[in-house]
Amino acid sequence: MCNGPLSIEKVRVPVTFRKIAVAAGLLLAAGGCAHTGDITAQGITAVRTACPEVGIPAGTGDITLFNPATSHDESALDLSATMTDLRSSCDSSGAQVVTNVTFRIDAARTHTEGARDVSLPYYIAVVQGGSQVVAKRTGTVSVHFDAGQARATTTGQASARVDHAAATLPEDIRRELTRPRKAGQEDAAVDPLSRPKIREAVQRATFQALVGFQLTEDQLKYNATR
Predict the structure, then answer these.
(1) Domains of the chain (ranges plus CATH)?
(2) What is the pTM assigned to this prediction?
(3) 6 pLDDT exceeds 80?
């Protein structure tokens, strides 16, 4: 059975081993229960919801603080933290697709004398088509160290919204992707995503909710070169 208010649709593409990986990655949206990889008389069924993919972009899942801030010497290392255990829930039943994200912060400090509270900045961004940032929010999460404590853990949360209509393919594109194809037909072995119009429509309807530390340019460079 399908659980939860999930908006999905079945997509049939030709059964060719060369195209199976592409078919499993198709992004669409309608109703009913289906499973990615189901084989029907017309091809492979791929399932997609209107919910965005959630992840931590490379280079933004770690933050390092130095004292003084202008030094990157090991002796100046003050605190480091890692974002992990990213989890999400999504409600796509309304006009707005709402994604709630939780994450854990594992932090370590060099100097353990005295209690200390540190506020670490983070962001959540909504990205359309894999490259265009359409919304972004920032916040802070506080980490508390007791006196003598070198490591501490805390949790944070964020949310993102996407217009359901924007995450839904146009009717003509959906019809083309879900159109039954029979063996022997001229386009039976042609991947629909090879057509620019369909590929671009799928990209426009694809969203991601990305979470990471809100880093300075200097911190981004440090993460990229360490």
Answers:
(1) 8-49+169-204 (no CATH), 53-164+208-225 (2.60.40)
(2) 0.75
(3) no
